[in-house]
Amino acid sequence: MTPETRQGRARDRLTKVGVAAVGASVVVTVVIGLLGPSAMVPGLGGPGWQPPYWLDARPDGHLVIALAAAGLVLGGFGLLAVLSAIPAAPASSGGAVGWRPWLPRARALVVLGCLAAGVLAFLPPSGSGDHLNYAAYGRMVTLGLDPYTHGAADLPGDPVADAVEAPWREEPSVYGPVATAVQAAASWVGGDSTRLTIFVLALVNAAAFIATGLLIDRFTRHDPARRLRAALLWTANPLLLYHLVAGMHADTLAIACMVAALLARGRPLGSGLLLGLGVAVKLNAGLVALGPAWELRRRPARLAVMAGAAVAVVVVGYAVAGPEALAPVSRTSKSVSWASLWKLVQGWLQGALGSGAYRGEIQVGSLLLLALVAWSLLRMAARGPVPGGAGGFLARPFGGGEVDATVVAAALTVAYVFATPYVLPWYDGLAFGMLALVGASAVDGFAVAHLLALSLAYLPARVDGQPEDLAWLGEVVRPRMAWVLLALTCVLVVWAWRAAAPVRTPRASAAPPR
Fold it and tell me: Model's pTM, two decimal places?
């Protein structure tokens, strides 16, 4: 047996194990929700016949947290294993060179991912308690209160508002007017039932996730290898199913709008309206708008139509919501999350210069880091692939040499999640939605590692109902993950900078050939 044959068989075995790990991770996420209220799953009040449904097994907190940790690790490992096995060059189903026998078909992954999202919509959300806040904000709108100036504590005795967990009971909404409108519509349907309100929100969320996956699949259908990679990065991504679908975070709706806007940018008016809707869900999604803006920089008329439509949607939305809708966003934008690398910087500044939050300095530093990461990626994308250097997974250049709107959006969103002072695992979903639209590169691996580290840092992302002897997960593991994120960011910048360096070719000898 030749060394090449042995290496090929080893790769096939690793790919097979990776596919199994991805599937097992999705099953674990479904099981956690199916078991019912636990340390991972907040309870939902309402009639038992109403969806979502669960077994009410009341599992031990240690068990479900261990299951979640195992599912996350399996999902991260599986993604890295299968992504690294996808050939860089297009491969046909007829057995083109480089296609591995154990690579799954993209269509199968898309179908299974959509089915998993549909099943999770009928199970109680898990991983965090943010969905309870969504229900309370919608409840406030239906009762005539402003969710941008009130918190759940301002509705004592209300069955929906009382379900909100600490430490968020006094916090007003930080979401845009479109997100608030969806929450209000769900509350209007659900009424006094937290259970039914959450189910309506879960249906909207799952529909947005599935629609995004189908759009990405259609966009990449011309290339089987690229289509498979896109399915792994989004629709069948076990880490995104865990956070965006099972966790039911509002980011899913913003990402759906932004992906649709990028794919519809041939129609400036429609694309602008979609961009405005995405920004009116979450402001940070506005980074994506810089992609089509850059692409249309030499076509001012089309750029004006797109920008005007987007701005009009945002202005109208916030005009209806009132100026108070911007105050909570500006306050949270100055926060520093515990797993962020900027928490380390804040500690160093406090040790060297004395007590203080140093939020202004951290904001300036994060903007500089964002610019550095984005510039490094775009510099590499503009350079294009190295002749004869297709090589392995780590040798693939970002963007493939074509700097269009999707590449700019992907570079900016990846830079954002690596550089922002306030980062949570589900924020990474925006970067994955953009990466699925561009060519494969080592950035895929960095993004998976970043999301996995954050996921383990916030396991689970809630305070209520946690076993007391597992407090070290938040007190020890979460701050330590900041070092992992710092290392990942440094390696990403160094790799991008070196990959974009000019190729040095040996100078031809002046001596005549023998």
Answer: 0.94
